[in-house]
User: Fold this.
Amino acid sequence: MKVRILGCSGGIGGHQLRTTSMLVDHDILIDAGTGVADLSLAELAMIDHVFITHSHLDHIASLPLMIDSVADMRIKPVTVYATDATLEIIQNHIFNWAIWPDFSEISIREEAVMQYQAIRVGQQIRLGERRISAVPAEHTVPAVGYHLDSGAGSLVFTGDTTSNDVFWPVLNKIANLRYLIIETAFSNREKPLAIMSKHLCPSMLIDELAKLERDAKIYITHLKPGHIELIMGEIEECAGDFKPRMLQNNQIFEF
Assistant:
């Protein structure tokens, strides 16, 4: 599997600040934040599967525009995967004809342009030799992370989450784990806000990483614009042997 980071920022405000999205090979998206907009029309038309962690705008902003842009270029629906709760939010508040057309009802050829597929925590979707599973997350809205498994190796993306004891036993069972992408949105001085909004700050991150029993390379995502250096500095001060690195736009993982 080849994973290209299209966006990994907690906000916008410059060429390098794109919100969360990852392109897996050429045909799968993990989240659909503003980073998707940097893909060409041809690249967008090749995307068959979109796995959404949760319904917040920074993770779905490009989804409606992408579907609209490639609708007449496709011969089969784009499948959007998420939990039942997240799909209900997206259907009610985005693809509702008031904010955006409901492309699950629009057919340009024989089938609708878009279709929904519910996924639950622990469920695995097989796409050829690739396996994608939903893992537990804890956020202000229903949320999951995703485990990407090529057979040879695994990458786990936590999605937006806070302290979550249920997540780590799942992670620690992954024998071929290579990469963990985990969020840290706020600095330590904003810990009350991190707790309220169910994100992590560096001190909370280190408490969570203490539950990790696998040897994996750790990358930090979702840092708030304007606080990136502060947050990474605080992480470096308390990370010890974990040595987390900041996730970068256009970074590529192959496993």
